[in-house]
Amino acid sequence: MAPFLSLGRLRVAVRSRKGFKPRYRAKHKHGTNELRGRVERLKTEMEKRSEEQKDIRERQRQVKDKFTAIEAECEELKRETRFIVQQTARTQIKLGLMFRILKARETGHLDEAALLTQMLREIVRFEKEEEKEG
């Protein structure tokens, strides 16, 4: 074989500090550095995403706490509203009884007035007992 033909079959080498290395190795090393750079960028990106997720979870926890507090306050307001409605209803009943007592006395129905007065006394006594228990 002629010497000029054998040159084509030899791998072309690149000179480095450590000696001759084939050209594909030099490209591979460059690709490895590039890959390392990508991996580092991905790691920093993942750390940033992880921090963002932690922040999101913290904000979700805060929102959940606020929501729970609002729900508790809402329940308290509902209880207070029911209590006020009950008091208003009792007051209306007592006012109705008082009005009927006055009308019965005006018309001379004293026995009806006495009965209505007794009912009013029972309601007031019942309310006082509830206040003591409650």
Automatic annotation (TrEMBL):
The keyword Coiled coil applies. It comes from the Eukaryota. This is Uncharacterized protein. Residues 32-80 form a coiled coil. Keywords: Coiled coil. It comes from Gossypium darwinii.
